[in-house]
Amino acid sequence: MMKHDQAEGLRRKLDSRNHPNNAKTVAVISGKGGVGKSNFALNFSLQLINNGKKVLLFDLDVGMGNIDILLGSRAEKTIVNLFEERLSILDVIEQGPKGLAYIAGGSGLSNFFQMDESDHDYFYEQYKELSLIYDYILFDMGAGVTEDSLFFILASDECIVITTPEPTSVTDAYGMIKHVVNRKQDMPLHVILNRASNYQDGLKALERFKAVVTKFLKVEIQSIGIIPDDRVVTQAIVRQIPYTLYNEKSKAAKALKDITYNYVTHTKQVNRTPSSFVQRLKHLMER
Q1: Residue 102 forms part of a structural domain
Q2: Is residue 6 part of a domain?
Q3: In a domain, 147, yes or no
Q4: Which of 267, 190, 204, 249 is nearest to 29 (CA)?
Q5: Could you give the CA distance from residue 257 to residue 244 in angstroms, rounded to a whole number?
Q6: Contact, 158 vs 180, CB < 8 A?
Q7: Does residue 9 lie within any of the structural domains?
Q8: Are 60 and 137 in contact (CB under 8 A)?
């Protein structure tokens, strides 16, 4: 599908909606790089689609945006073009497999967090349209935290934290959660343990992690799953194919399929309006 036709199709969906969709915004975060955060965000998005959801994946990994690379494609437009050319946000949406929509980050994304007031207002108005089209909008955030990226995390409806069993990864994930809850105590937090050597060890590691967070940060986090270490994931990355498409019978793909089904089935639904995310983001940026 040509990009112009794709944008027109999105506009028709927007025009035809009598009941706003009010997308759930989810920030996918990690304490350190190299834990498989972007790969999780991509494959999780595809599994949400398999569960009948309309999904937009928004690459906000400053300087390291790689969703298009993981898909083996090259984005025609990025979020940077939205501001430089004053495009409609529908015109910078790229099309991935299974109807996945995504917005690429681009090397100039660092400027995105240093916008002036007119750019902020332009983004707010554009974003509201997206909330009417999609069921889920996922932000693939950069590893770690900056004051700027924290705005998007705190404005989201919930966070999914990605960690691995490695002690440094667990420590950094704890630090990331601490940053979030120090600013927003009631943020819903979910954790995924990636690259577990086996399920039982992964489960024990998750329980220990939850206990530490509860004891020292006084918040409850929900573990939503364990993804086993699987060489198929590495093979899929090399071939630039999402691993849930590369081999849907692999251990990692099966685990993520179950995780996504349970997430869609059991996560709490909250009342949202098309402007709720925008209102929170605006409030945070204007402090």
Answers
A1: yes
A2: no
A3: yes
A4: 190
A5: 8
A6: no
A7: no
A8: no
Q: What is the pLDDT of residue 3?
A: 61
Residues of the chain falling short of pLDDT 50: 19
Contact residues for 279 (Cβ-Cβ < 8 A; gap 6+): none
Q: pLDDT value at position 5?
A: 62
Residue 78 lies in domain:
20-285
Cα–Cα distance measured from residue 150 to residue 155, given in angstroms and rounded to the nearest whole number: 8
User: What is the pLDDT at residue 276?
Assistant: 87
Within a 13 Å sphere around the CA of 51, how many CA atoms are in the beta-carbon half?
19
CATH number at residue 260: 3.40.50.300
CA–centroid distance for 283 within its chain: 21
How many domains is the chain built from? Answer: 1
Tens digits of residue pLDDT in 49-88:
999 999 999 998 866 678 999 999 988 888 888 888 999 9
CA pair distance 231, 195, nearest whole angstrom: 10
pLDDT of residue 120: 84
Q: Residues with Cβ < 8 Å from 218, sequence gap 6 or more?
A: none
Is the separation of the CB atoms in 161 and 191 below 8 Å? yes
Q: Identity (one letter) of the amino acid at 44?
A: F
Phi then psi for residue 136, to 5 deg, are: -130, 135
- The pLDDT of residue 273 is 63
Predicted local confidence at residue 20, as pLDDT? 55
